[in-house]
Amino acid sequence: MKTISFNTLLVALSLIIANLAMGTAWGQGATIEETPPPPKPQPKPKPVPVFVTPKLLWKTGLGRVEGSPVFAGENLYLAATDSLFQLDFGGRSQWRIALGQQLGSPAFDTQRIYSGTDTGVLQAISRKSGKGVWKFTTDENSAIYTTPELGDGRVYVEATDGNVYALDAAGGQLRWKFLRPDGSLGYSSPVFADGSLYICGETTLYRLNPRNGEVIWQKYIGGKSLSTVAIGGGRLFVGGDGTGLTAHSLGDGSILWTFVGRIKNDWFGSPTVTNGMIYVSTYNRYVYGIDANTGGGKWSLQVPGSALSTPAVDTKRSVVYVTSTTYKDNPTLTAIDGKTGKKLWDYKLGHTTGSPIIVGDTLYVGSTTGTLYAFSLK
Questions:
Q1: How far apart (Å, rounded) are the C-alpha atoms in residues 41 and 64?
Q2: What is the pTM of this model?
Q3: Residue 87: which residues within 8 A CB-CB, separation 6 or more?
Q4: Which domains does the chain have, with CATH numbers?
Q5: 3-state DSSP call for residue 18?
Q6: CA distances from 83 to 120, 206, 258, 297 (A)
Q7: 74-100 burial string, b = 16+ CB within 10 Å, else e?
Q8: Which of 211, 214, 256, 352 minimizes the number of CB atoms within 10 Å of its CB?
Q9: What are the helix (H) ranges across 122-227?
Q10: Most distant CA atoms of the chain, gap in Å
Q11: Phi, psi of 195 (to 5 degrees)
């Protein structure tokens, strides 16, 4: 039997004492890893809506529709022939007021609807009762072909006499008017954004102080334009005739980039900007998807007729809807994949001059044949 020396025992005893002090000896103070609880079930991601063929929900005859419907609260408002209508979302008329021929779309605030006529009369109507609140007449009864704009307690409207008028929204009193020095005939609507008023004359962009109508900056765009500006991402976008689509700095109006389509002298309509993309249609029947940051063209598609309306975008499904004019009984409502530019669907509405709008999962569009249509997008 082998004898263990006293020194060996002393070393072994020292190691045991050291391990006890460190809390690791023979199960005393040893670390025990607990079994982790099972992971909590994660909610399944909601499926991304996909394009389905729009289904006609209803159509209603109102009279010749030149502009676009607008929605406010639980109602649609639409100018047709010589009247302004309030409709529910089923297309049933709630009230009607005769105003005169209206070529633009109405505007609204919490209490009133505002609409201009071809005889130069801007009227404010109670949303609740459909009765007139006040009316204002432009100089020499100059026609109002565009949509009024609201902001800072005022309503702004352009007329064919070259003036932009600013009126008190509650009472209709004239606060100021601005005569466009470029001689524009007032075919684009003013836009109120970030505390300023932006307008596009036939050749020049203006940024105005909405309190007094003073020019903050103006920028010659190099050609004629009938386009209402679109604003997004700190930039202003406008289409022109022969100038393509241009992006401008809101700060000083300087041009950041220019996009020219497939036809050099094509006439661009009013663009729509959303999710970093710009969608715009043209007189020569092209629709474009453009990168809003760089101005690079992503896709183009030629539709059957001239398409100067403002595109409506179903952002849930990334689908762009455009209307175009009648040519040889062609379809005048087209659905386009917003990512690829592929045509998904079209429909014969008859002649259209207004733009479609999307409310929730429903698209509304009117035609000059006198019909307002509603399509389900889901």
A1: 56
A2: 0.85
A3: 60, 75, 76, 77, 78, 93, 94, 372
A4: 221-367 (2.130.10.10)
A5: helix
A6: 15, 32, 40, 41
A7: ebbbbbbbebbbbbebebeeebebebb
A8: 214
A9: none
A10: 129
A11: 75, 10
Cα separation of 262 and 145, whole Å? Answer: 30
Q: Describe the chain by its helix, strand, coil percentages, rounded to 5.
A: 5, 40, 55
Instruction: Kindly report the length of the chain.
Output: 378
Cα–Cα distances (Å) from 304 to 96, 156, 237, 320, 348, in that order, read 35, 35, 25, 16, 11
pLDDT tens digit sequence for 202-235:
789 999 999 999 999 999 887 778 889 999 989 9
Contact in structure between 335 and 377 (CB atoms under 8 Å) = no
Give pLDDT tens digits for 14-68.
443 344 344 433 334 444 556 667 777 777 777 778 999 999 999 998 878 888 8
Please classify residue 162 by burial: count the beta carbons closer than 10 Å to its beta carbon, then call 0-12 exposed, 13-18 middle and 19+ buried: buried
Residue at token pair 């453009």 = 290
